[in-house]
Each structure stands twice: as C-alpha cells, then as structure tokens.
Amino acid sequence: QVQLVESGGGLVQPGGSLRLSCVASGFTFSAYAMSWYRQAPGTGRDLVASITSAGSSTRYADSVKGRFTISRDNAKNTVYLQMSMLKPDDTAIYYCSRFGYWGQGTQVTVSS
Fold it and tell me: Using CA atoms, how far apart are residues 29 and 97, in angstroms rounded to an integer?
C-alpha cells in the first residue's frame, strides 16, 4: 500500500531553516509528481510546492517563492522541502502528498 512518511519538523526561530523529508513506499516513486502542502490551525490545507516525476519542473506558492526549495531523489524514494528565512506565518503541519494520498504530517513551528 502507498505510504508517505514525513520527518524533519520542529521548532525554529524566525529567520531559521529546516529541511523536511518524505520517504515514499508502495508505488513507483519515480513515476509520480509529488507535492508538499501545509495546514495552519483553523485553516484549510494549502499547496506549498510541487515537483514533476523526474524533478525537471517545480512550482511554488507565492508566499514561499525564493525561500523554499522542493527537490527529490528518485533513487531514495524521497522528496524534500528545504525551508529558509522562516517566518511565524510558516507555522503549520506540513504534509507530503502524491495524488490521492497523504502522509501523517510533520509540525513546523516558527517562534522566538
């Protein structure tokens, strides 16, 4: 069965960095585009970034452009989200997604 397991969240000060990882299993990872979403308390789940199956194309939400980078390693069945210049507004649960499937999420808290 499809499994997506995120890691790398935590508490970080404003201006800091974190790298999230998502290890996928149960499907041919290299054949699928992957995405990161986030959900802040009391809000819906919003797309943060996505990457094509080969990693040749990416797209980002306007709110994270220039600060976040999505990448993938198809040999390791892993997709990453490098987050820099973090702001308190980035506080959310971050979810890895393949179309129709979600991970359990990892909490990112940006606070001094």
Answer: 12
- On whether the CB atoms of residues 6 and 105 are closer than 8 A, the answer is yes
Q: DSSP of 7-55, one letter per residue?
A: E--EEE-TT--EEEEEEEESS-GGGS-EEEEEE-TTS-EEEEEEE-TTS
The string of pLDDT tens digits covering residues 97-111 is 999 899 999 999 999
User: pLDDT tens-digit profile of 43-62?
Assistant: 999 999 999 999 999 999 99
Q: 5-24 burial, b for 16+ CB within 10 Å, e for fewer? A: ebebbeebeeeeebebbbbb
